[in-house]
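[recover] target loaded
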């Protein structure tokens, strides 16, 4: 039996750990050994409780990188700010990953947004696979694409930052006698990139591409959906406390008489609610997304990849409040589908009530979401997890 390292290094939220959990379950059921190497061991503890899988702390960048532009124009700039600006600093991170890999001796490193795990595996001659949505699986064999497609980033800036990224990576690889990388994308793709999305939801809207494996969704978890009493239409909101637009959209939903089930992690932990109304119920713990989406008419989110995919699979239109380049690109894809509104692209002052009314009452949004759901009605996360397990086994035989 093989030993698989499932690694997560960059990115916030539990989505990465949830995806790795969905990968771990079929591999372990087939008798393989699995080890998690995770960015966060605390917030993931409840999610992974009871699995009996060894979990290690991933080496991560703990410092502030000064002098970086405020709006990151490419994945290269994101990585430069996470330890890749200086080859000596990157060597320290890579040494940590190399030590973990030498201790565990995995047959395959599986990376979910874990570029330094891929770098370390390459330096040791270990095979690596990368899983994730379009954002973390950029097009192969070409320069990293710009993230802010709504702006024109200077091409010289994009070339310079990718060259700086490659210089750091290749300096580290050369110190270990490993072959250099030709493109920044190599750092994210590893030896076996697996694009876990569909073309409609690909952040980079690449022509051709694939194979499209569908979203790598976490196993169902969370409590049953419990809605406020009354007759208003049901809306499920999965938001972040203090994020722009959170209080405004909840206020609009209340004014339109909607019954809102809202999960805000900070409110669940004791923070004050942004809107106090009997029409809004704040869940005390994470809510089962399949349960909530099956019962609501509209989903309000920050356009995270997994939540967006599940809402569309349920045929629900979305009102989206993206707050980062990744979620902004995802929101644009949903708008292009005709299945939602990106509130952050609307002119100020934003007409929150108008957006809610449009999504609830104009059939075009519901029809577009329903068409997407019909297109992928045969997709199941369980089948996709088994398909991934087949692929990983083939990589180590």
């Amino acid at each position: 039996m093989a030993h698989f390292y499932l690694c997560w290094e960059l990115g916030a939220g539990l989505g990465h750990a949830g995806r790795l959990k969905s990968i771990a379950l079929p591999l372990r059921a087939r008798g393989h050994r699995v080890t998690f190497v995770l960015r966060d061991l605390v917030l993931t503890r409840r999610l992974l409780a009871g699995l009996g899988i060894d979990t290690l702390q991933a080496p991560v960048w703990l410092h502030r990188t000064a002098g970086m532009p405020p709006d990151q124009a490419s994945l290269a700039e994101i990585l430069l700010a996470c330890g890749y600006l200086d080859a000596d600093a990157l060597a320290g991170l890579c040494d940590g990953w190399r030590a973990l890999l030498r201790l565990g001796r995995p047959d395959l490193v599986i990376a979910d947004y874990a570029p330094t795990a891929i770098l370390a595996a390459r330096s040791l001659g270990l095979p690596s696979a990368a899983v994730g949505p379009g954002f973390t699986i950029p097009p192969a064999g070409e320069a990293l694409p710009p993230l802010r497609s709504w702006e024109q980033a200077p091409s010289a800036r994009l070339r310079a930052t990718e060259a700086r990224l490659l210089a750091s990576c290749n300096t580290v690889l050369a110190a270990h006698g490993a072959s250099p990388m030709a493109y920044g994308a190599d750092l994210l793709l590893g030896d076996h990139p697996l694009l876990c999305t569909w073309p409609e939801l690909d952040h980079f809207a690449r022509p051709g591409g694939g194979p499209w494996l569908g979203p790598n969704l976490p196993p169902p978890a969370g409590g049953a959906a419990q809605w406020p009493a009354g007759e208003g239409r049901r809306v499920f909101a999965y938001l972040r406390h203090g994020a722009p637009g959170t209080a405004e959209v909840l206020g609009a939903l209340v004014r339109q008489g909607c019954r809102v089930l809202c999960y805000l992690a900070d409110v669940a932990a004791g923070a004050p609610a942004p809107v106090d109304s009997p029409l809004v119920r704040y869940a005390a713990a994470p809510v089962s997304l399949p349960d909530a989406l099956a019962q609501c008419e509209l989903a309000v989110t920050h356009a995270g990849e997994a939540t967006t995919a599940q809402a569309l699979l349920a045929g629900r239109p979305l009102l989206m409040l993206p707050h980062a380049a990744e979620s902004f690109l995802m929101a644009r894809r949903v708008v292009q589908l005709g299945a939602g509104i990106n509130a952050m692209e609307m002119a100020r002052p934003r007409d929150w009530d108008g957006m809610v009314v449009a999504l609830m009452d104009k059939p075009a949004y519901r029809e577009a979401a329903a068409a997407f759901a019909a297109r992928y009605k045969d997709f199941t996360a369980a089948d996709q997890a088994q398909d991934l397990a087949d692929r990983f086994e083939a990589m180590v035989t």
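[recover] notes: The radius of gyration is 21 Å.
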